[in-house]
């Protein structure tokens, strides 16, 4: 099922050249970054890559949706931490992604955190965008260091 916005309130463009060993520019934000294929994928490593950018974007979006879910459920999420991990691996002739998200909300029992995290996953635009296409595992509690 497609989730279509009723109205676009913000749009951003990114110009990309050179693929995984190229560069990405967001002209309206005066942002430019070099990209490097991870060493584990046969590249030089040592730089940003599409998976890192996706993890950052998804994590930030999930964090914002967490605040919305917390407000809806009467839970303070102001001290929360969202950790988003994006993996990539072979799938047939191409590659596929998987996502793991860990949610920590200090001072709350695990059942409450799970309830808020589940609602967050329903509200998050990134979660909606990849629903039924990319496996997403959501965990709660303090992540292992």
Automatic annotation (TrEMBL):
Pfam families: OsmC. InterPro entries: KH_dom-like_a/b, OHR, OsmC/Ohr_fam, OsmC/Ohrsf. Belongs to the OsmC/Ohr family. This is Peroxiredoxin, Ohr subfamily.
């Amino acid at each position: 099922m497609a989730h279509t916005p009723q109205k676009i309130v913000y749009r951003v463009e990114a110009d990309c050249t050179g693929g995984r060993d190229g560069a990405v520019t967001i002209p309206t934000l005066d942002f430019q970054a070099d990209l490097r294929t991870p060493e584990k994928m046969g590249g030089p490593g040592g730089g940003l890559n599409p998976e890192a950018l996706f993890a950052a974007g998804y994590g930030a979006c999930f964090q914002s949706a967490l605040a919305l879910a917390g407000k809806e459920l009467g839970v303070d999420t102001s001290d929360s931490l969202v950790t988003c991990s994006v993996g990539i691996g072979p799938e047939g002739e191409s590659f596929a992604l998987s996502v793991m998200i860990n949610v920590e909300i200090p001072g709350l029992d695990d059942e409450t955190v799970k309830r808020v995290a589940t609602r967050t996953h329903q509200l998050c635009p990134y979660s909606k965008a990849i629903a039924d296409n990319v496996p997403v595992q959501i965990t709660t509690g303090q992540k292992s260091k």
